[in-house]
């Protein structure tokens, strides 16, 4: 894995958890708006919107660089629209990046899978 691919996975991973938190906070604000006089939906909506757009941009970049299968790419997109999906995506991306680093080191050192 080259540095640009690793960077694209890292960016996607960094934005996935904050995007998930903003989604959950937006849901809470929506409930509070309807049950109380508290209305933070415009602020949280804007924050979540920015984070979601960043997630989609970073997702497209990661898909392009990693050459994920269509199913894997769709999985990461679907995880972005589920309330706790961003946390799942972050964990999966972390494992994928670690596996890629191990594979890269093995290739560099000439280790071949037996």
Task: Kindly list the characteristics that best describe this protein.
114 residues, mainly alpha
How would the blueprint of this fold be written?
Layout: H1 3-35, H2 41-66, H3 70-80, H4 85-109
Helix pairs in contact: 1-2, 1-4, 2-3, 3-4
Description:
The protein is mainly α and 114 residues long. The protein has one domain. It has 4 helices and no strands. The longest helix has 33 residues. The chain starts with a helix and ends in a 5-residue tail after the last helix. The relative contact order is 0.18.
- The share of residues in extended strands comes to under 5%
- Taken in chain order, the helices and strands follow as HHHH
Low-confidence blocks of residues: none
User: Which of globular, elongated, flat, extended, rod-shaped describes the shape?
Assistant: elongated
Q: How many strand elements?
A: 0
Short description:
The chain is an all-alpha fold and 114 residues long. Helices cover 83% and strands 0% of the residues.
């Amino acid at each position: 894995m080259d540095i640009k691919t690793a960077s694209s996975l890292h960016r996607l991973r960094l934005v996935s958890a904050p995007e998930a938190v903003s989604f959950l906070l937006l849901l809470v604000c929506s409930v509070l708006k309807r049950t109380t006089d508290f209305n933070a939906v415009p602020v949280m909506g804007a924050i979540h919107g920015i984070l979601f757009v960043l997630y989609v941009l970073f997702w497209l970049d990661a898909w392009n660089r990693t050459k994920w299968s269509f199913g894997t790419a769709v999985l990461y997109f679907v995880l972005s629209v589920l309330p706790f999906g961003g946390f799942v995506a972050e964990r999966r991306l972390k494992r994928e990046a670690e596996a890629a680093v191990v594979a890269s080191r093995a290739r560099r050192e000439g280790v071949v899978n037996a």
